[in-house]
Amino acid sequence: MTCPHAAAGSVRTYPFGDRVDLELDPAYAELRAGDPVARVRMPYGGEAWLLTRHADIKKASADPRLSMHAGADRDVPRAAPRGLDSVGLMGMPPESHARLRRLVSRAFTARRVAELRPRITEITHGLIDGLIAEGGPADLVQRLALPLPTAVICEMLGIPNEDRHVFRAFTEALMSSSRYTEQEVAEAAEQYADYLRGYVAERRAHPQDDLLSALIEAHDEGEQLSGNELLMLVGGMLIGGHETTAGQLAGHVALLLRDRSRYEELRARPELVPTAVEELLRVVPLWASVGPTRIATEDVEIGGVTIRAGEAVVYSLASANRDESVFENAGDVVLDRTHNPHIAFGQGPHYCLGAPLARAELQCALEALVTRLPGLRLAVPADELAWHEGMLVRGPVELPVTW
Ligand code: HEM
Asked: A Pfam family in this protein (predicted)?
C-alpha cells in the first residue's frame, strides 16, 4: 500500500529496533523533533501514521473520528499479527462501548478503590511476609508483581485466585503478539470463553457480592448487556486487570533498583511514593511498541497533517511521556516531579478504566517494599535481566532480588 500524500522516501519501517526493556529507541526523539506525524510501514497490514508528540496524541485520543472499533477484527496496519481489539472493551462499537463502560465504571471509581485499599494493602503485606519468611533471593515477578494484581482483580470480579494458573495460560496467548500462532490464539480465546461461561453459570445459580454477579444481574434483568458482551467484559477485565499492572510493577522496581540511589531516595522518603509512581508510569513503557490501531472514519487534521478517511493511526504513549516540550528534563527520572501530565493510561473515551486501581496497587507495593525490605537489590546485574519478547506489553521475565 502506498500513501498518496507522503513525500517519496519519507516512509519509515516500524518498529525502530527491538527494545522491549525500559528504554525507547532514539528514533522517537528524532520524530518528535522533526516528523511528529510520521508515515511508517507497519510489520503487519501496510502503512500507518505514527504520532509521537504529547499534544498530538492527547488530541487524537480524544477524537471519536479516530476509531479503534473501525480497525477491530480487520486486517488493518498494526504492530503485531493481532491486536487487543478482540479482548474486552477496546474494539467494541461506540454505542456498546459507552453503555458497557458506564455499567462497569462504578466498580473502578476512586472512591470504590479507596474502600478496597485496606484489602490491597493486606494482600501486599501477605506476599511480603512470604518473601521474608522464605528469605532471598526470590523472583519478584512471581512473588509480588504478578500475584498482587491477580489476587485483587480476582476478588473484585469473583473469580477464584486458585484459578490463576489456568487463566495465566489464556492471558499469555491472548496478550502475545507473535509468541503463539494464529491458530493457538484462536483456540485459547475459545477455551477462555468456555472457562468464563462456567463461572457465569455457577454465579447465576449462586450470586455473590462481586462484579461478575452484578453483571449477570444486569444481563438477566435489565438486558443492558448481551451474553457475549458479558464474557468480553469480564474476560477483558481479568486479563487487563493483572497483566499490565504486573509488567509495570516489575518494570518500576527494576528501574528503581537498576540505579539503587532511586530506591534509597524512596526508602528515606516513603511519602514520595505517590509522585514516584506517577513518574515511573511516565518513564516505564507499557506497550512493546504501540497500542491498538485507530482508523480515521473521516478526514482528521492532526499536527498539521491531514489523515484521510480510512487511514490507520498508531500512537506511542511512551514517546509522548518523554516529550521535552511538556516535561522538564524529560529524560531524567525525578521521583518528586510535581508537574507530571503523563498519559500512561491513555486519554479520551478509552482512558484506562482501571487507572485508580492500578495506581493503588502500585503505591501499596512500593510503600510496602521500601518500608519492609529496605535493603532490596537486584540479585543479577541489571543488563542480564531478560524482558518478554513476542508480547504486547513489556515486563521482565523474572526479577531476581535479594535484601
Ligand atoms: C499500570 C497498569 C495499567 C496501565 C499502564 C494501563 C494502561 C491502559 C491504556 C494506555 C489504555 C488505553 C489504550 C488506548 O487508548 O490505546 C487502557 C485501557 C483499559 N484498561 Fe488499563 N492499564 C493498566 C491497568 C489496568 C487495570 C488494573 C485494569 C482493570 C480492570 C485496566 C482496565 C482497562 C480497560 C477495561 C481498558 C479499556 C477501556 C476502554 O476501551 O474504554 N487497566 N489501559
From this structure: p450
